[in-house]
């Protein structure tokens, strides 16, 4: 399923606004009801979520709109003990990968999330965007 979404979400970054609206609607339809969060995050020219699935509300308590309004939201809600490592993974990643981090949900409860990233680089080798999947591992650990 993620392979199909990769193509849909990645194409949103390079198509016209009208086409992007159509593709985003398609991505929303495909991800509706999916347990994992799927996202496309642009780092340049300005950091922003281009797409984040509605399941983020169930997992973190923050809506997609909260993420669009505050692209640095995850930096604010990652557990303080994980913040430095998360910053390195999220902002300074040099390669695609998967890591587990602790977050604080909107209601104050802890969450343990596995984040998988695929990076998109420009011609100079700098990361320009990333897409990923977030899986909630909290329940798997009985928390």
Count of the separate structural domains: 1
Beta-strand content bin: 25-35%
Global mean pLDDT:
82
Q: What CATH architecture do you see?
A: 2-Layer Sandwich
End-to-end separation: 27 Å
Largest sheet: 5 strands, antiparallel
The string of secondary-structure elements, in order, is HHEEHHHHEEE
Q: Number of helical segments?
A: 6
Spatial strand arrangement across the major sheet = 2-1-5-4-3
CATH superfamily grouping: PAS domain
The count of DSSP E runs of length 2 or more, i.e. the number of strands, is 5
CATH topology: Beta-Lactamase
Q: How many whole angstroms does the radius of gyration measure? A: 15 Å
The rough form would be described as: globular
The stretches of 5 or more residues where confidence is low (pLDDT under 50) are 7-22, 26-31
Helix content: 25-40%
Structural class: alpha+beta
The CATH class: Alpha Beta
Secondary structure elements and pairings:
Blueprint: H1 2-12, H2 17-31, E1 37-42, E2 48-52, H3 55-60, H4 64-69, H5 73-77, H6 83-91, E3 97-104, E4 110-121, E5 127-136
Antiparallel strand pairs: 1-2, 1-5, 3-4, 4-5
């Amino acid at each position: 399923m993620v392979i199909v979404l990769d193509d849909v979400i990645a194409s949103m970054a390079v198509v016209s606004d009208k086409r992007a609206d159509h593709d985003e609607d398609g991505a929303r339809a495909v991800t509706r009801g999916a347990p994992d969060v799927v996202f496309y995050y642009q780092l340049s020219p300005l950091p922003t979520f281009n797409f984040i699935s509605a399941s983020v509300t169930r997992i973190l308590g923050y809506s997609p709109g909260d993420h669009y309004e505050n692209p640095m939201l995850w930096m604010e809600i990652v557990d303080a003990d994980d913040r430095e490592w998360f910053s390195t993974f999220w902002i300074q990643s040099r390669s695609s990968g998967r890591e587990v981090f602790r977050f604080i949900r909107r209601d104050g409860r802890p969450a343990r999330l596995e984040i998988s990233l695929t990076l998109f680089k420009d011609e100079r080798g700098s990361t320009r965007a990333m897409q990923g999947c977030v899986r909630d591992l909290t329940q798997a650990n009985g928390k």
